[in-house]
Structures are given as structure tokens and as C-alpha cells.
Amino acid sequence: MVEKKIDRRILRTRQKIKETFAQLMEEKGFEAMTVRDLTERADINRGTFYLHYLDKYDLLEKSEDELFEDMEKIADEVWGNLSLNQYDQVNLDEPFPFIIQLFEYMEENYEFIRVLLGPNGNSAFQVRVKEVIKKKMLEKFLRYTQPEKMLVPMDYLVSYVSSAHLGVIQQWLGRGMDRTPQEMALLLSNISNFGPAYVAGLKEIIEEKK
Amino acid sequence: MVEKKIDRRILRTRQKIKETFAQLMEEKGFEAMTVRDLTERADINRGTFYLHYLDKYDLLEKSEDELFEDMEKIADEVWGNLSLNQYDQVNLDEPFPFIIQLFEYMEENYEFIRVLLGPNGNSAFQVRVKEVIKKKMLEKFLRYTQPEKMLVPMDYLVSYVSSAHLGVIQQWLGRGMDRTPQEMALLLSNISNFGPAYVAGLKEIIEEKK
DNA sequence: CTTTTAATGAACACTGTGTTGTGTATTCAT
DNA sequence: ATGAATACACAACACAGTGTTCATTAAAAG
């Protein structure tokens, strides 16, 4: 890997732009924000902004890219399978490690992520986050199930679970992160493994039906 | 209810605006579209647009409102509980009527809804759709479960299921609606009632654990 | 210390916005 | 059918934001 020394001025300017960008995202949202707003607040020349980014959409994209890359890194590093018991079976009491780490990452970067995943957030970003989760969930399902045993199409099932996870993350962020990443991951694990109806208390009916 | 006769010219103009709006939403998306684009395409004067809407955001909001109201109407009309068997128990084989109707509504209005719920869609609208589903799911859970039997917090459970439903709807729209509303509703019902892990084929493990 | 280059400040043309005033044409009510 | 009401067209307006350019200044690199 080639180590390039980047001019300090560049680093400082980009840093200031990103800081201010995060601030304004929270205060007025992306669409309402202008490049003028940003550069005035950041106390840099408007022209300077265009030395670094094509426009505000480019800035958004590049900022999202960083978060996205972090998340993919987590997904790749955390070999996110459940631990296996003596029968090489899934341990259903244990939360999914990747999900814990994902919550932890959200917690660390909540300022910006909260906005991106919020009601005035960015659909495209949400789709990307969902893709990361989907990939991991697909891995999990493929690991522990035989395709011929599936009762519903794999892609819809993955879509179901991943969207559910993202939705719970959004709810959690919106509530000001009222639980720990561990608690949240366990909660999600319980619903996903035992099923919404079961954890809602419909046990008898389900047992009977099966 | 007072029957107001609205000037035909108004109706025609608004009709044309909405038609063109839907077209442009699909072609270039909301943010890329200008009022100029719209009025030129619709062949009306730009000033006329401002006689009916404050700006393009107002137009978007009012268009979404209509869809939203339709969905709430469906939610209110369809007494969306599952049918009960002789023991006054939930029939788990039957899809949720409200969900069938929701899919049918999406199918009818797919041109516009596909864009709003798509990757370049509107987060706020997605939140609103989710709210409609949430309300109905909460009703369902409250109907069939006793709060003290709940194994996870109600609000997170509702969030989980509703987000999952919306996610599957989005997937379905993105795939060009490859199944019927009935099939989709049954699929969702199966996952929600028996659980993702169960329908993925992890039956033995789950039985053993319980 | 010299060279390189990032940032500044000011100006530019351009696009889109939202409003206004006047005239025309359609619609409504009788 | 006719007059009154009003929605729409047309044109012009000031304004805000964009993205670019160029000469100048300041800071960093070597």
C-alpha cells in the first residue's frame, strides 16, 4: 500500500466540511441545506467547497460511503454465525454477533446515522444498510438450512428479516437508544428465532397448529 | 356533507398537474424535477401552478396525502382480524385480510407508489405507510395476546413486524409484482405466525429448545 | 529559502423560484 | 343567451443558489 502524504490544509478543510455537514443535516436536513449555508458556517470560501466536492449530493454520497464501508468491514470481520452446541446446532439463546456490533457502530456514529435513517432520511442509504444486513442474513440461512426445507422463498424471507432488523434499529435510534446493543440484539434474535406470534404470547395456538 | 361545485377548469388543471407529476417522478425523481419541467410538460403556465400549490413539496405532500387517506380507509373498513375457529382461536393458515387489501391497493396504484417506496423514494412516506401497518398490527396483537405473556416489548415487536411487512412490499414492487396479493399476504402470514427460523427449515432445533 | 499548491475574494453567467399586474377566455348563474 | 365572476396566460420582476474562473495571498512541503 502506498502511503501518500496529504496536505494538512486539505485534511483540515475536509474535516471542517464534514463536521458542519453533520450539524446542518441535523438542524435543517439535507434538502433544505445549501452549499452557501455550509461554507458560511464552516467559515471557508464557497469556491473551496467545489475544490473538494462536485456538489452537495457528492458530499452526501461520500459521507455515506464511509459509513457503508465501515459497516461492510464489520460484516466481513465478525464471523457472524451463532455459536454451535455439541450437536452442531444453532444456539437460539445467543444474539447474532454481527447485529450486536452493528448496534454498537450505530451508537458510536448516531449523530449522523440517526438523521440518515430518520423520517427525513435518505432512502438510498437505508437500502444500502439493508443490503449489508441481507447479505449476512442470507449467509446465516444458507448455513443452517437446507434449501428444500424452506417453506417460503429465500429472497422474501431475507427481505422480511432484514427490513425488520433495520426497522427496529430505526425505532431504537428514534427513541434515543433506550437499550444496550446487547439487549437489542437479543431481542431481535428472540423474535427471529421463535417468531413474532410466539414471543407475543400465542404459544398454545402455534404448538397446536404445528 | 356540503356538495361544492368546483370549477371545471380547476379540476382539469389539477388533474393535468398530477398526471405529469407522476410521470416525472418516474422519469427523473422528485428532487431532480423542477416546477418548470412540470408546467412545460403539462402545458400550463408556470404561474398557474402556484395558484394551486405552494411549491413542489406541497404538491408531493398532497399527493401522498391522498394515497395515505386511501390506505387508512382500507385499514378502517377491513376489520382485519383473522377469522376465529371454534375455540375462538386464531386461524394461522389464513392471511391477514388487511394485508391482502393493502397489496391490492399497491397493485392498483403501483406507478406512483413504486417510486415513493423505491430506492429514491421518500422516507417520510415510508414512515407513514409503516404507521398504518403498525396501527393494524398493534390491534391484532392486543386482540390475541395478554400483555403479561409478551416475551419482548410490544412497541419493538410491532416495529419489527411492520417494517418486515413494508420491506417485503418494497421487494415485491421492485420485482414487478411477481406474485398475487393473496400469495404475498399468505407468505407474510406464515413468516409472522411461525417465525422466520421455522419457515427457513430450522424446525427441529426450535422444537427442542422450547 | 524556494517551490508548490491550497485557499481566498470577487466577479461571472445561468437556472430556478415565487410574485405581480394586465389582458383573455372559460365557466357559472340567472 | 348574456353578464358577472374567475381561472388561466403572458410577461416581467427581484431574488437566491449554483458552478466556474482568475488573480492574489497564505501555508505547507522539500
Please, could you describe this protein's structure?
2 copies of one chain form a homodimer. By secondary structure, chain A is mainly alpha-helical. The first copy, chain A, has 2 domains: 8-53, Orthogonal Bundle (Arc Repressor Mutant, subunit A); 62-209, Tetracycline Repressor, domain 2 (Orthogonal Bundle), CATH 1.10.357. The first copy, chain A, contains 11 helices and no strands. Chain A has helices spanning 8-32, 35-42, 46-52, 56-77, 97-108, 110-116, 123-144, 154-174, 181-194, 196-199, 203-209. Chain A is elongated and about 70 Å long. The relative contact order of chain A is 0.09. The structure holds a DNA duplex (30 and 30 nucleotides).
CATH class of the largest domain in chain A: Mainly Alpha
Quote the CATH topology of the largest domain in chain A.
Tetracycline Repressor, domain 2
The CATH architecture of the largest domain in chain A would be Orthogonal Bundle
Q: How many β-strand runs of chain A?
A: 0
Spatial separation of the terminal alpha carbons of chain A? 57 Å
Mean model confidence by pLDDT of chain A: 91
What oligomeric state is this?
homodimer
Low-confidence stretches of chain A: 84-88
Discrete helix count of chain A? 11
Give the largest chain-chain interface (CB within 8 Å): A-B, 60 and 60 residues
Overall 3D shape of chain A:
elongated
Can you tell me the number of structural domains of chain A?
2
Structural class of chain A: mainly alpha
**Main sheet properties of chain A:** none
- SSE string of chain A, helices as H and strands as E: HHHHHHHHHHH
Determine Rg of chain A (CA atoms, Å): 21 Å
